[in-house]
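Troubleshooting: if your tokenizer reports a length mismatch, compare against these two reference records.
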Amino acid sequence: MAEVNEKVQNHAEEDFATLLEEYDAGKSRDEVVTGKVIALKDGEVFIDVGRKSEGILDAAEVSDEQGNPQVNVGDDIKVAIIGSRGGRPVVSYKKA
């Protein structure tokens, strides 16, 4: 019986890994999503875009002429996922 349980558990783990890979592959570049502003730091805005890590947005995209950010922590904004850097999605407000 223990052998059967082990086979079932191993098969379930393989299926989950396959499903997770397919899910991540289905999220394509230039996908427009609504994200929540998590933090503003060092010229970057960190956005929760529903991925494994936060998206990175260049603060200049959401700043006025004086360089003041026009978003606050907690705001929901639409962004386009345009690539990745260091395992984090890179997002653009202007392309959304």
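Reference record two:
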Amino acid sequence: MDLFIQLVLKINTRAERKVDKELNVDLKKIRGEEGMLLRVAEAALLDPAGTVRRVIYPVVGGEKTLKALAAEAAANEAR
């Protein structure tokens, strides 16, 4: 029984490390995140009736970057 418990713990630890590693790779791709978030807020305040594609995407560099910012914020919130 002890061997089984050790095996389960080892598998769990490996899985956690793998997930953490994958999250860290994704999160490290964003440079200057705080400045980017500031520019997003300023753009939204300057043109609150504007569309996201026209107002926000140009400020952050596109949809992909905005999705990465959202994923990083969600990951930080979960911690």
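Descriptive notes for reference record two:
- Residues 2-78 form one domain.
- The chain has one domain: 2-78.
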